[in-house]
Design goal:
81 residues, 4-stranded mixed β-sheet, alpha+beta, 2 helices, globular, 20% helix
Length: 81
């Protein structure tokens, strides 16, 4: 793949704002665990479980390593669209 430069004309903050306008975003929601399952991803928050096809995680590498799991689990129930 050729090297390509991406320039965000409205500033780097416009990228997460545009993404947040299209998907379910949880702010100030500490993540307990993230599990990759055969049918998607399960994110366990404090008192809430979310199931989705994909997850965008904004965190440092040490935090991600403490919260993620690659174990196969049973199918997830309700899905976020």
């Amino acid at each position: 793949m050729a090297n390509k430069k991406v320039i965000v004309g409205a500033g780097m903050g416009s990228f997460p704002e545009a993404l947040a306008a299209k998907v379910n975003v949880k702010l100030e929601s500490p993540v307990q665990t993230i599990e990759a399952r055969d049918d998607g991803v399960v994110v366990q928050l404090s008192g809430e479980q979310m199931c989705a096809d994909h997850v965008v995680l904004a965190a440092t590498a040490p935090i991600v390593s403490r919260t993620s799991s690659r174990q196969s689990k049973p199918a997830c129930g309700a899905r976020i669209r």
